[in-house]
């Protein structure tokens, strides 16, 4: 751990001259002092005036604001990240609410689509399914040793947000998630690695694009894929035995399988399944407090029963079991709707393994209207029959929560809880303004991407962001602080409870209060999550370091974006 929230350890620099300025991990440009410039052979290589970090941050913020449009802002921040990592994190940390939508959803989606066009510099490690024998060499090429890595975020780019397969461009979701880890929870960025598991792409426009930078062939078959993933996990665990392995944005055919294969073998979690499950549970628990209706009395419809949707259902089902329901009773509270309509037991091959548990018995839906195009029971009919109190969108289908559906839901429940979780912004199942309009301001709304507050009848409704960003940074920090050997279900539940607790009791009773703590408080939320996760890891016996004071250990593990003293060696 190299947390420097106390007095930072000196940074030992062997490079000299231009090599110092070219390395974003050590470069501080105009903030190098006269003494440091002399020691590092920088005299004359930077303009004479020495700036403070505050002055640098002011100028960088002005430059950021001058960029025309979000993609230009993203390119600007990436360039800053590539130039001076500490200043990048200082800036993002100071303007979290304004910059998270640039380094993360929604703009990261645009950056991923345009990756091969906008490409400037590599970041992270690119592993190729065509050369599994190079996995070790490539991970070693990062220059990091066995004790140097706390966290790796890996993606295969198949299920980026709700925009699908973007091949090698997916590296930017790993980079974006890591930026959130550091900005929100103070994970030391020098001890992290983004990894692209390039197994090809099935998107014709990438395969046909001469600029495309990834492997220009279709995605590997299952056996080849599995062997490659295994080479990655085995090698990463061997080279970096303390690293938490985070899986991001895999397709539904692989996400759950990969997690299940490794979750009891290494310290790992899937953010889309488990992080999303935890943040969704936190939002629903706030909704439970706001409505006064106990959790077991809710009827829950999940629209988009894929990686995230079933992850969400699983986490809620476990919470219901925790309230005393049997697994069968808890499962019976869910109606999951996917591309063929309501999951029903007669759908055979169309059901994925992880959906089977939620398939409703056919005789319970006798007489329900079917849509021949699906050809199952559509969302509107499910809502009409079930009268849900909670409606969750994890489908990536923009506008799927139509006025008719929402009005029907609101006709039978006082305060409908509606979580339109799909990203990026344009794929939300409904906008908060519409949801509030159609429910006369009664809906308890949260969205996956940020939305501006809604003004209605003189009242301002702040919209909570039901995004796993409220969970994974703190989960990671808590796990790192106690060197957890596993991520357990109870650690995720502790994270959800910690997020829910951050939404004050007084607040949730108000009509217009957000269901989740705001992004501007993300650092505090992440710290609370980290403490809860670390405590639970200790209780569960998976902490390899058991601190006397967990809170102090979590604080000590935080990295802050300050320039440490320099030691020229
Ligand atoms: N807010 C958050 O923290 C998170 C949000 N998400 C969002 O959830 C969405 C889904 O992500 P994943 O679960 O990873 O993708 P996925 O591909 O695993 O799941 C999407 C599911 O939606 C289903 N679907 C597609 N078209 C449909 C239709 N017309 N009607 C009903 N279902 C349909 C698919 O069959 C699939 O099962 C994305 O937009 C993603 O951004 C995902 C993870 C976290
Ligand atoms: C937030 C996230 O992980 C997703 O949309 O995939
Ligand atoms: Mg994701």
Please outline what is shown here.
The protein is an alpha/beta fold and 569 residues long. Helix content is 42%, strand content 11%.
Binned strand content: 5-15%
Helix segment tally: 24
Taking all Cα atoms into account, the compactness measure Rg is 24 Å
Structural class: alpha/beta
Bound heterogens, unique = 1,4-dihydronicotinamide adenine dinucleotide, pyruvic acid, magnesium ion
Estimate the helix proportion, in percent: 40-55%
Sheet with most strands: 7 strands, mixed
Poorly predicted sequence stretches spanning 5 or more consecutive residues: 1-5
Mean pLDDT: 96
Secondary structure: number of strands: 16
Biggest β-sheet: strands ordered side by side in the sheet: 9-8-7-10-11-12-15
| End-to-end C-alpha gap | 22 Å
Task: Choose one word for the global shape.
Answer: globular
């Amino acid at each position: 751990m190299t947390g420097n929230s106390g007095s930072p350890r000196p940074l030992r620099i062997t490079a000299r001259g231009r090599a110092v300025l070219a390395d974003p991990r050590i470069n501080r440009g105009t903030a190098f002092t006269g003494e440091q410039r002399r020691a590092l052979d920088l005299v004359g290589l930077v303009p004479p005036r020495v700036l403070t970090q505050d002055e640098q941050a002011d100028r960088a913020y002005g430059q950021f604001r001058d960029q025309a449009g979000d993609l230009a802002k993203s390119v600007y921040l990436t360039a800053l990240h590539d130039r001076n990592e500490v200043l990048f994190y200082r800036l993002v940390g100071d303007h979290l609410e304004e910059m998270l939508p640039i380094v993360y959803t929604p703009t990261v989606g645009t950056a991923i689509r345009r990756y091969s066009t906008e490409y400037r510099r590599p970041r992270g490690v690119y592993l190729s399914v065509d050369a599994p024998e190079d996995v070790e060499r490539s991970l070693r090429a990062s220059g990091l040793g066995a004790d140097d890595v706390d966290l790796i975020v890996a993606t295969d780019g198949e299920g980026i947000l709700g925009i699908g397969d973007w091949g090698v461009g997916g590296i930017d979701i790993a980079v974006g998630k890591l930026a959130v880890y550091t900005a929100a929870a103070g994970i030391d960025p020098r001890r992290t690695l983004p990894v692209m598991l390039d197994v090809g792409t099935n998107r014709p426009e990438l395969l046909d694009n001469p600029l495309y930078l990834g492997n220009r062939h279709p995605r590997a078959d299952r056996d080849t894929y599995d062997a490659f993933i295994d080479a990655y996990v085995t090698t990463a665990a061997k080279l970096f035995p303390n690293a938490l392995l985070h899986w991001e944005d895999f397709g539904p055919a692989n996400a759950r399988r990969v997690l299940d294969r490794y979750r009891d073998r290494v310290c790992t979690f899937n953010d889309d399944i488990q992080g999303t499950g935890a943040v969704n549970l936190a939002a629903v628990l706030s909704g439970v407090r706001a409505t006064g209706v106990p959790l077991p009395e809710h009827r829950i419809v999940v629209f988009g029963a894929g990686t995230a949707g079933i992850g969400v259902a699983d986490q809620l089902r476990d919470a219901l079991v925790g309230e005393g329901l049997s697994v069968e009773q808890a499962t019976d509270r869910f109606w999951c709707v996917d591309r063929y309509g309501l999951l029903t037991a007669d759908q055979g091959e169309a059901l994925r393994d992880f959906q089977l548990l939620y398939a409703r018995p056919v005789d319970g839906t006798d007489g329900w209207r079917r849509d021949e195009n699906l050809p199952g029971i559509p969302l509107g009919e499910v809502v009409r029959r079930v009268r849900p109190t909670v409606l969750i969108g994890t489908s990536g289908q923009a506008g799927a929560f139509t006025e008719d559906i929402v009005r029907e839901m609101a006709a039978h429940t006082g305060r409908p809880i509606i979580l339109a979780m799909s990203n990026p912004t344009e794929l939300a199942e409904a906008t908060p303004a519409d949801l509030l309009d159609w429910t006369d301001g009664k809906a308890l709304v949260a969205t996956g991407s940020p939305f501006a507050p809604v003004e209605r009848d003189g009242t301002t409704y702040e919209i909570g962001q039901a995004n796993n960003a409220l969970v994974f940074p703190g989960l990671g920090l808590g796990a790192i602080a106690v060197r957890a050997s596993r991520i357990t279900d109870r650690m995720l539940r502790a994270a959800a409870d910690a997020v829910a607790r951050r939404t004050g009791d007084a607040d949730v009773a108000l009509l217009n209060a957000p269901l989740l703590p705001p992004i501007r408080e993300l650092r505090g939320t992440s710290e609370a999550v980290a403490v809860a996760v670390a405590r639970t890891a200790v209780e569960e016996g998976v902490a390899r370091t058991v601190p006397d004071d967990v809170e102090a250990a979590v604080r000590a593990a935080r990295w802050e974006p300050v320039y440490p003293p320099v030691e020229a060696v």
